[in-house]
Design a protein that fits this description.
This protein is of the alpha/beta class. It contains eleven helices and 13 strands. The strands form three sheets. It has a nine-stranded mixed sheet with strand order 5-4-1-6-11-8-12-10-9. Helix 3 packs antiparallel against helix 4 and helix 8 crosses helix 9. The longest helix has 13 residues.
Length: 287
């Protein structure tokens, strides 16, 4: 069965970016002139996914407004002949079919995905974590979908991470089966660097099967009261094969302030309308 639907957990409180996120969603913080969540939705659309499901929470209305039509703004731009700006605005609301569901309490990533169960139904689906912005010639999710179509089993994105940072990630034990493809033998959540089974860390892109929902519903919360996706994936892997793709592309961890700043600089330098002037400015700093 082909994958049509993409789930975007976006109900987090964004505490690492306070005070900027006190009154606006972290997902709406801009990289240059585009909110972070739009980059990720555009990746989904470029990968061939047509139905977007965004899991929101309180204070996230700006996300819904962003992907909705803006009649007053469109009328204003059209009336003043701002053709290019009008085209950009209309493109956003026409990207894909977007649905929303609320996560009423911050009960973890696994719980956020479980909230989308009724909208996903009994079919495979993709999951995108908005903190991971990935620049790639072929969209990262498209690389995962190609592997899913080959094996018809769940697929995760992984990246080699320095061992001293592995305690920040879920990490896989794996057997390589192709140039960039691994069969997952086990998953460990935030291991000590000395105990990590490899340096392949799980990154925020997944292609999952609907049998995961029953496992999530039956997964016990951890000590913080959260349902962890990695715990459910371990149980799913015990029932069926699971694969990982060491994707080709550059990932920016925009959930981290330094990662966000790095992404802003590199995305600005990739813009033809900004690159020359911005590069000259950076050089003028003499850093």
């Amino acid at each position: 069965m082909s994958v049509r639907k993409a789930v975007f957990p976006a109900a987090g409180l964004g505490t690492r970016f306070l005070p900027a996120t006190k009154a606006q969603p972290k997902e709406m913080l801009p990289l240059v002139d585009k909110p972070m969540i739009q980059y990720v939705v555009e990746e989904a659309v470029a990968s061939g996914l047509s139905e977007i499901i965004i899991v929101t929470g309180r204070g996230k209305r700006a996300i819904e407004d962003h992907f909705d039509a803006a009649f007053e703004l469109e009328y204003y731009l059209n009336d003043r002949g701002k053709v290019e700006e009008l085209a950009q605005i209309k493109t956003i609301s026409e990207l894909a079919s977007v649905s929303y569901v609320r996560q009423k309490e911050p009960l973890g990533l696994g719980h956020a995905i479980l909230c989308a169960r009724a909208l996903v139904g009994d079919e495979p689906f993709a999951v995108f974590l908005g903190d991971d912005i990935i620049a790639a010639r072929e969209p990262c999710m498209r690389q995962l979908l190609d592997v899913f179509e080959r094996y018809d089993e769940p697929v995760l994105a992984v990246e080699r991470v320095p061992r001293e940072r592995l305690s920040q990630y879920g990490v896989i034990a794996a057997r390589q089966v192709a140039a960039t493809v691994y069969e997952i033998l086990d998953l460990v959540e935030k291991p000590r660097p000395s105990e990590a089974p490899s340096d392949l860390a799980i990154i925020g892109r997944y292609v999952l099967t609907p049998d995961l929902f029953g496992i999530l519903a039956d997964t016990q919360p951890d000590a913080r009261g959260e349902i962890q996706l990695t715990d459910a994936l371990r149980r799913l892997r015990a029932r069926r094969p699971m694969y990982a793709v060491a994707f080709e592309g550059k990932r920016f961890d925009t959930g981290d302030k330094l990662g966000f700043l790095k992404a802003t600089v590199e995305f600005a330098l990739a813009r033809p309308d900004l690159a020359d002037a911005f590069r000259a400015y950076l050089k003028s700093l003499g850093l």
